[in-house]
TrEMBL record:
Residues 11-178 form the CP-type G domain. It comes from [Clostridium] ultunense Esp. SUPFAM superfamilies: P-loop containing nucleoside triphosphate hydrolases. Pfam families: MMR_HSR1. GO terms for biological process: translation. This is Ribosome biogenesis GTPase A. GO terms for molecular function: GTP binding; GTPase activity.
Length: 282
């Protein structure tokens, strides 16, 4: 699949991150726990340099639990702090706050010696679209002031958000990168909704997803849709799912597009199962 994008606002966001990095004490890099490698912008390491960082493995409720732990161990071995988080259900947020205090302790002590006391810990939120940055901010601030949407690309301008206590957050729009060197990365981002569906061939994307799920475990499709997938092509599996779900159009034909959307939607919502699409290479 040919995935083309990199809107102008993403280039501006990259420049804004560089410009505002000196204003913050720590960076929260939010990634999707189902695709930790693919949802990490490879340019972020170079942009952040030695700035203190916490990787937030969000949407952990949609990912395999054991895989979450493997990724956390992986980042730990690289010397990067990480927290397994489920923003929707407010899991892991207290750990994020405690870790923020610990990682910024030296910085705060240095400011105190200069007479600057009780200054909020300033945090920048970064991450690719649709990994849950706005939901994280809303959960931490216990308010609904940050614009949140089901589609990627909702946040477009920097926003400072003051929290109760000693945290102050600078939000940034999702930032992707100009070119996918690895086609699997592009597919993983498309599977999880980080790329707008309007830019994609949904039917081919659903076929690719069925291929991937069957390669991991045939039980994913068979148990969810009560069908057998052995020796069946992904196209035929989607037609069978469409028949089961009543995706019938005039003349008795299966609405392949509707069936494709059902599969993608149920994967993204975790209805098919808690699925991690990639594991760390240790």
């Amino acid at each position: 699949m040919n995935i083309n994008w990199y809107p102008g606002h993403m280039k501006k966001t990259k420049e804004s991150i560089k410009k505002n990095l000196s204003l913050v004490d720590i960076v929260y890099e939010v990634i999707d726990a189902r695709i930790p490698f693919s949802s990490q912008n490879p340019e972020i390491d170079g942009i952040l340099g030695r700035k203190s960082r916490i990787i937030i493995l969000n949407k952990s409720d949609l990912a395999d639990m054991e895989s979450n732990k493997k990724w956390q161990d992986y980042f730990g071995k690289k010397g990067i702090s990480s927290v397994i988080v489920d923003c929707i259900n407010n899991r892991g947020l207290e750990e994020v706050i405690k870790l923020s205090y610990r990682l910024t302790g030296e910085r705060r002590r240095h400011l105190a010696k200069k007479g600057i006391k009780n200054r909020p810990i300033r945090v920048m939120i970064v991450g690719v679209p649709n990994v849950g940055k706005s939901t994280l901010i809303n959960s931490l601030s216990k308010r609904k002031g940050t614009k949140v949407g089901n589609k990627p690309g909702v946040t477009r301008v920097n926003q400072w958000i003051r929290l109760k206590g000693d945290l102050e957050l600078l939000d940034t729009p999702g930032i992707l990168w100009p070119k996918f060197e690895d086609k699997e990365v592009g597919l993983n981002l498309a599977f999880t909704g980080a790329i707008k569906d309007e830019l994609l061939d949904i039917e081919n994307l659903a076929i690719k997803l069925v291929e991937r799920l069957n390669a991991m475990s045939k039980a994913f499709i068979e148990e969810r849709y009560d069908i057998l997938v052995e020796n069946k092509a992904p196209h035929d599996i989607i037609l069978e799912i469409g028949k089961k779900r009543g995706c019938i159009v005039k003349g008795g034909e299966i609405d392949f597009s509707k069936a494709s959307n059902i599969i993608l939607d149920e994967f993204r919502k975790g209805i098919i199962g808690r699925i991690t699409l990639e594991l760390p290479v240790l």
